[in-house]
Structures are given as structure tokens and as C-alpha cells.
Specification:
Elements: H1 2-10, H2 12-25, H3 38-52, H4 55-63, H5 65-89, H6 94-105, H7 111-118, H8 123-149, H9 157-181, H10 183-189, H11 193-211, H12 213-244, H13 249-260, H14 264-274, H15 283-312
Length: about 325
């Protein structure tokens, strides 16, 4: 069983891509699953995140405030601005623009920690940034969405704040409580969480793509291009900020990956809950979920190879 789970976690990007392709070619394979399941699945993923976090992870936030502050400021300025700028440059339709901006305003994704580890970056900084940006998300994400998308559509910031608390913060707290009071059961479950999260992400992507297959076929290439640029620019600007501030290379790597990889599942959930009148708003989050796993694996290989070459020299 453990080998199967390790295989699923290792090939997550490929699995997500295959499910997305199947959903696009044969939408009926997943249209029988309603979009309402997306929010519970994200909640379960966040619960799993809570099971893997420890008190040490939160101590990092307090012990390295400067690094975390730099990371969160970069996260919540670079990605929203890039999202807004790309929607203007490519003159995206309103529905797609809302989805791209939602992705840009979300906190860092949990997969960033794994990618940072593989890239030989500062893992402690990555975990601390994920924890801090996730805790800040209920306040900053609604405000940023209102700031950048408020002219396109009514943004109910208070309702969005509560949604993020319900589907992100509360599940994480429940996971932390389980870790505290039933540690033996938690230890048994934890090794299977990466595989479970991979399956949940793949299903989320598949459901969104299957329900919007016709629309995606019409504007698909444009969405993919914008999402790819959003992610790649985020990775590049994250590293650039670290270079300008003369941070050590492992910190630059962590900053790059943390900024470039968003919690796109949250963006999809928020689109389903608060922008149901704009079905295409769910698409950028789904495409981002596919692409950033692929780009993450590539940059991890590049960063780790460069680090190895530096050490050998």
C-alpha cells in the first residue's frame, strides 16, 4: 500500500495531467460528480496539512520574522499584480479574468514545500511562508480580490473571508488538534496523505474541466498561456526579489517556489462558491493546478542541479 501511495505522490503532475486530458476529451467521465464536492475535498486536504504541521513550523514564523515578512509581502504583491497585468495585456474575458485574479490573490500552495525540498532550498522558510500566508489569507485574499476585480463584479469580502475560514483555517485547526490528542493514529495516517492529496487535486481538476469542457475548448490555449506566464513570472520574480535583497541562495530558491506556486484549489473553490454566475472563473485555478506541478518538478531539477554543481566546484 505504501509503495502505491509513494508512486501516486511521485507522479502527481502526470496523473493530474492525464485526468485533465480525459475530462476534456470525455467529459461524461466526471460530469456525474457535482462541483459541490470541490469544497469538502479542499477542506480534507487542509485537514491533512494540519496533521503534518507541528509547533516547530509555527515557531519558524516567530523566529525568522524578517524572512517570513519578505516572503509574504512578495507573495501578496507580485502574484496579484501579475494576474491583473496579464488579464489586461491579453484582454481576457471577464469570467476568465476573475479566475486568474483569484489564483493570484490566494496564499502559497502546500505542494511548494515538497518542491522546495527537492530543489534543495530553505525548507524551513518554505513551510513558514506557507503557514503564514495561509493564516493571512482570510483577510488578504478577499481584500485583494476586491481591489483587483471589484470593478468587474461585486465582491462580497466578508462572505469570502468566512469561506476561507471554513474550508482552510478550521480544517487545519482540526488537524492540529488530532495531532495533539491522537498522535498514534495521526502517525499512521500521515504517510498516506501525499497520495490522498494528489488524488483529491486530480479529481478537482477533472471535475472542473469536465463541467466546462466545451467552453475550455473555445478559450483553452489562451487560458493555458496566461496561466503558464503567471506561474513562470512568479517563479522568476520570487527569485529576483531574493537576489536583490542579497538573500542566501537556498532562501532565494524557497522564495521563488513559494511565490510561484499558489493554492489554486482554494481559487477554484472560491470561484464555485462566490462566482457561480461565471462558470469559466473556475478554469484558471484548474489549469494552474495542472501546470504548476509540472513547472515545479522542472525548476526543482534545475535548482538542485545548480546547487550540486556549486558544491562540487
Amino acid at each position: 500500500m505504501q509503495r502505491i501511495c509513494d508512486f501516486i505522490a511521485k507522479w502527481m503532475g502526470v496523473i493530474v495531467l492525464m485526468v485533465a486530458a480525459l475530462s476534456l476529451v470525455a467529459p461524461a467521465s466526471l460530469t456525474w460528480i457535482g462541483t459541490w464536492v470541490i469544497n469538502p475535498m479542499l477542506g480534507i486536504i487542509m485537514f491533512g496539512m494540519g496533521l503534518t504541521l507541528s509547533a516547530q513550523d509555527f515557531k519558524i514564523v516567530l523566529s525568522r520574522p524578517k524572512d517570513i515578512l519578505i516572503g509574504c509581502l512578495t507573495q501578496f504583491t507580485v502574484m496579484p499584480l501579475l494576474a491583473w497585468g496579464l488579464t489586461k495585456v491579453f484582454s481576457l474575458p471577464q469570467e476568465l479574468a476573475i479566475g486568474v485574479i483569484l489564483v493570484g490573490c490566494c496564499p502559497g500552495g502546500t505542494a511548494s514545500n515538497v518542491i522546495t525540498y527537492l530543489a534543495k532550498g530553505d525548507l524551513a522558510l518554505s513551510v513558514g511562508m506557507t503557514a503564514a500566508s495561509t493564516l493571512l489569507a482570510p483577510l488578504l485574499t478577499p481584500l485583494l480580490v476586491w481591489l483587483f476585480a471589484g470593478t468587474m463584479v461585486d465582491v462580497h469580502t466578508s462572505a469570502m473571508l468566512l469561506s476561507i475560514v471554513y474550508i482552510v483555517i478550521l480544517p487545519i485547526i482540526c488537524g492540529l488538534l488530532c495531532q495533539r490528542f491522537i498522535p498514534k493514529i495521526t502517525q499512521r495516517v500521515t504517510p498516506y496523505l501525499p497520495a490522498f492529496s494528489s488524488i483529491a487535486v486530480a479529481l478537482t481538476v477533472g471535475i472542473v474541466v469536465s463541467h466546462n469542457a466545451d467552453r475550455l475548448m473555445t478559450a483553452g490555449l489562451l487560458v493555458v498561456l496566461v496561466v503558464m506566464l503567471h506561474n513562470l513570472f512568479g517563479l522568476g520574480f520570487g527569485y529576483l526579489v531574493g537576489w536583490v535583497l542579497r538573500l542566501q541562495r537556498p532562501k532565494r530558491v524557497a522564495l521563488s517556489i513559494e511565490v510561484g506556486m499558489q493554492n489554486s484549489g482554494l481559487a477554484t473553490s472560491l470561484a464555485v462558491m462566490h462566482f457561480a454566475a461565471f462558470p469559466l472563473a473556475t478554469i484558471p485555478g484548474a489549469v494552474f493546478s495542472v501546470w504548476h506541478n509540472i513547472s515545479g518538478a522542472i525548476v526543482a531539477r534545475i535548482y538542485s542541479r545548480n546547487t550540486t554543481e556549486r558544491i562540487s566546484k
